[in-house]
TrEMBL record:
Residues 66-93 form a coiled coil. This is Uncharacterized protein. Keywords: Coiled coil. It comes from Roseibium polysiphoniae.
Length: 141
């Protein structure tokens, strides 16, 4: 039969352990399991201890999952920072190359090239054919 002493001790142990767990200290969780398995403790207190033990398992699982997510996010951040550094470096190289490209328009050179084209026999032939076609279409009714 349950003695008031065992019940009080179990309740005190349960309260102390639950308070530690509430403050994030899971070192005393084994005491919960001791209360759950102690046949000398009343059934309702053992059930309560078992419920708390189940909650501890869930909290630990969430904390483990959260720490895994944090680790994954930290790695993703590291990879993003490395990619950003690489892009900055590539952009700097491209900017340097772009600055070196100096496109200028040389008017004298352009006039010379135009003159070469317009002085060619082929261009003169095209001009003559175009003039002939224009005059032919103007006179046709």
């Amino acid at each position: 039969m349950d003695t008031p002493d065992k019940t009080q001790t179990a309740i005190k142990s349960l309260a102390t352990t639950c308070e530690a767990i509430a403050h994030g200290r899971f070192d005393d969780v084994d005491e919960l399991y001791d209360v759950v398995t102690n046949e000398g403790v009343p059934e309702d207190i053992r059930a309560l201890a078992e419920t708390f033990a189940g909650m501890v398992v869930q909290v630990e699982a969430r904390e483990f999952h959260a720490s895994q997510l944090i680790a994954d996010l930290t790695e993703t951040r590291r990879l993003l920072e490395a990619a950003e550094a690489k892009l900055k470096k590539e952009n700097a190289v491209l900017r340097t190359r772009l600055d070196k490209l100096d496109v200028t328009y040389d008017e004298k050179q352009a006039e010379l090239e135009i003159q070469q084209v317009t002085d060619s026999d082929y261009f003169k032939s095209l001009q003559s054919r175009a003039k002939s076609l224009r005059s032919k279409f103007k006179t046709d009714p």
